[in-house]
Amino acid sequence: MFASARRLIQYVGSVALEDIKNVNHRESVKTFCKTQETADPRIIKAEIKGSNPHKSHSDPTDPENAISVQFLDTNGK
Predict the structure, then answer these.
(1) CB within 8 A of 69, min separation 6: which ones?
(2) In what order do the strands lie in the sheet with 65-72?
(3) Does the N-terminal or the C-terminal CB of the chain have fewer CB atoms within 10 Å?
(4) What does the buried/exposed string (b/e) look like for 41-77 if buried means 16 or more CB atoms within 10 Å of the residue's CB?
(5) What are 33-63's pLDDT values in tens digits?
(6) Is the dihedral of CA 39, 61, 75, 28 positive or negative?
(7) Is residue 35 within 8 Å of residue 25, measured between CB atoms?
(8) Is 29 exposed, middle or buried (0-12, 13-18, 19+ CB in 10 A)?
(9) How far from chain centre, in Å, is Cα 59?
(10) Residues 6+ apart with CB under 8 A from 21
(11) 18-28 residue pLDDT tens
């Protein structure tokens, strides 16, 4: 039996995980990214879209503030 190699999601873009100064927000983003990576093995990269919670650009009807993350596969999609 072979042990499978554990992939680690790669953070790309201009906002690094460490740029999120609020520890609770940073841990929430990190946990969310790990959950998504586990759920969909095609995900290899995450691009964080801002270091502070803000109104969603992709869903302007969402009343909650969010830190947006775009997930990418090997083709960058």
Answers:
(1) 29, 32, 33, 36, 46, 47, 48, 49
(2) 10-12, 45-55, 65-72
(3) N
(4) eebbbbbbbebeeeebeeeeeeeeebbbbebbeeeee
(5) 999 999 999 999 999 999 999 998 888 899 9
(6) negative
(7) no
(8) buried
(9) 17
(10) 51
(11) 999 999 999 99
Instruction: Read off the pTM.
Output: 0.82
The full 3-state SS of the chain, as one line of letters, equals CCCCCCCCCEEECCCCHHHCCCHHHHHHHHHHHHHHHHHCCCCCEEEEEEEEEEECCCCCCCCCEEEEEEEECCCCC
Place of tokens 């993350």: 69
